[in-house]
Amino acid sequence: MTTSDNSSTFADQSVAAAPYAVPQPAPFPLYAPEFAADPHRFYAAMRREFGSLVRVELAPGIAATLVIGYRAAVQINNDPERFRADPRIWERDVPPDCPVLPILQYRPNALRSAGQVHARYRKASVDSINSINLYDIYRGIEAMAIPQINTFCLDGRADLIGQYAFPVTFAYLNAMVGCPADLGQQVAQGMAMMFEGTDAAAGNALFAEALAELVNLKRFDPGADVTSELVAHEADLTDEELVQQLVTIYGAGIEPLTNLIANTLVLMLIDDRYMGEAALTTRDALNELLFMDPPLANFSITYPAQPSRVEGVWLPANQPVVTSMAACNNDPALAGRYNGNNSHLAWGTGPHACPAQDVAYSVAHCAIDQLFDALPEIRLACPADQLTWRPGPFHRSLTALPVVFRPARRPF
User: Fold this and answer.
1) Of 3, 105, 271, 356, which is least surrounded by CB within 10 A?
2) d(CA 226, CA 222)
3) What number of other Cβ atoms are within 10 A of residue 116's Cβ?
4) Contact 173, 249 (CB under 8 A)
5) Over its length of 412 residues, how does the chain's per-residue pLDDT go in tens digits?
6) Are 397 and 165 in contact (CB under 8 A)?
7) pTM passes above 0.85
8) How far is CA 59 from the centre of its chain?
């Protein structure tokens, strides 16, 4: 590794009794601001130094293995017998104030379970999400996006995260699950606190309390929404199980979908291929973004049931193994890499792959098109290299997306 690619976090020291085939330096902190600013530089440095599997920390003292090789990721995520999604053994030694615990901890839902229990939860979630009519998404997003654009189109400037991507995503998810706006606000606040690791325990409590109120509401007043479908599902979920299925829906929705919209907008605003009469399409931009820089960069977390050897590296039993979708998609060993194909891992792979990917993709596509239809001359308000990214081990998330444009009349 060259000096310019090195970092003090890659200290030259071995870890005693490490279960790895070859000693590695101190684990790299994925929560560091330097990593958030330029993760792909660090992925490249990790790959040169360590190959497909790298020791990292998700929070101070919380060790994990980061999978940055595409083939290793596919192998691990499609082997649920060796690499389980249930974290309960790992949790025993994790302090309750750990900032990433609310994201990783056991929950009775499809994301954090295994075996027949997982199959029961997964079917309930998939069946409920499949009740969504994809053809209605365009009308729904139009009804949410246009009023939001109306709030800033006369100003000539906006922050497209706080004023557009987040509120549109938030409104759609609330409508999808039938959540009143006040409860939805608590959900959004709690989720942000958990992803950023600031007051994560309090965020988790706020999140769960709001969803419990939503479940209670839908038991007595069902509607045409995902929560009501879950309540009525043949799986006969308890109130706690219902809350935790909604945790996965919101968790996979608010942050990742907001980031998918915002980050795709950045790509389209800085790349000449997406401007002009012969420009590539929004679909092209979404596919490229999902491949090259996915909004949920590091996730798909599993826990080896016993020490497991992958590509010559021993992974410790019951320690988190985190798939870096961002690094894996950019693995030089992946033949051709991005060439207009959809072989990326942005939605995960294996039995825990995202069941709502068609919905998320359609929402992002419609939201982006609505914005450019209303404000076709929009451009960044600062150089792209001045945009800043929020620290955190899991997401790829801007702090803000400032843009300018010629003030336009309200679309409707």
Assistant:
1) 3
2) 10
3) 8
4) yes
5) 333 343 333 333 333 334 444 445 678 999 999 999 999 999 999 999 999 999 999 999 999 999 999 999 999 999 999 999 999 999 999 998 898 998 899 999 999 999 999 999 999 999 999 999 999 999 999 999 999 999 999 999 999 999 999 999 999 999 999 999 888 888 878 877 776 656 777 877 888 888 999 999 999 999 999 999 999 999 999 999 999 999 888 877 888 999 999 999 999 999 989 977 767 899 999 999 999 999 999 999 999 999 999 999 999 999 999 999 999 999 998 866 666 667 899 999 999 999 999 999 999 999 999 999 999 999 999 999 999 999 999 999 999 999 999 998 765 5
6) no
7) yes
8) 17
What fold is seen in the domain 3-404? Cytochrome p450 (1.10.630)
C-alpha distance across the termini of the chain, in Å? 56
User: How many CB atoms sit inside 10 A of residue 63's CB?
Assistant: 15
Residue where the block lists tokens 């100003």: 155
**What is the dihedral sign for C-alpha 326, 38, 36, 369?**
negative
Two tokens, residue 45: 């440095």
Task: Give the C-alpha separation, 201 to 92, whole Å.
Answer: 16
